[in-house]
What does this fold into?
Amino acid sequence: MNRIGAMAIGGLMIAAATRAQQPVAHRWAIVLHGGAGVIERATMSAEGEKAYRASMAKATEAGAQVLDKGGSSLDAVEAAIRTLEDDPLFNAGRGADFAADGRNELDAAIMDGSSMKAGAVGDVTRTRHPISLARAVMEKSPHVFLVGQGADEFSAYAGLEQVDPSYFFTERRWQALIKELKKEGMPLPLRPAGAPPPPPTSQIEPVQIEPADAHKYGTVGVVALDRAGNLAAGTSTGGTNAKRWGRVGDSPIIGAGTYASNQSCAVSATGTGEYFIRLTVARTVCALVEYKGMKLQEAADQIIHKELTGMHGDGGVIAIAPNGEMAWSFNTPGMYRARQAEGGKVEIGIYNDEP
Ligand code: ASP
It folds into this structure.
């Protein structure tokens, strides 16, 4: 072989070795939900629909920007959820549902599919962004799950933004609580300290931009795949309207409402948490992918339309796989949802007759 030939082969070998050392470049992708429930075209106002679509586009954009700059799926999940937690339309952060005692008790979880590390918080009352508190538990404590007063204290210690509990108050969620408590014949709590004065009764109805039943849900969740091929999932919620105080739902329970593993998939759930806990929904979707070799959509449909529906539970999931496959599945009339893959447009859906 002449010198030029040897150099060419040497060059090819170096190129192959360099390729082998580089991580495989993935196309990023992100999916989010803003809760599932009785969300129907007939009862949704045009104004409400527009507001929800705009909010979901904004949150997707917040996550997509992180991913597009080569950021991690974990950062993208946190960024998108923080946007939704600040948005009073959703039942997470500001705009959270109330417990029956008239307080906002927030739950959140985040999981990193590459390390299988996770952090979660339950019943926190003073952290502006519970998803960031869940992340702090994962990164700054030896634990996975902190609840109640200990979680609130850890939040201040970790330097997260603290707010007065009245920051989470919204009139529409308060009215939804009062309505539910009256229906159940339960005692009505005092209006929370620091909440704005009640509007005249005649002004209460117009603040509703969606059917009252839809207020029952509105939890937010995001799953993402980054260019390094890592998956992450996160969920944040105020729980269910008029829940018994001290109740923790599925959202912060790893394997129930939130799960991520690079070996299978990342999932965030929404719906009546008690069913999702008993069915370990998020982990089971991923287990079907990992051990049964099911396609992501098939696995999500199996759990939602067979297992959850069979138990008379209601709600849905969003999911993403390491190959960029995205899925959503729900058995309610609607689920606020959006997704985007690198190079593609944002797709947004609300009702069950949309793709
Ligand atoms: N899954 C949440 C819970 O039970 C509620 C929801 O998704 O809207 O706390």
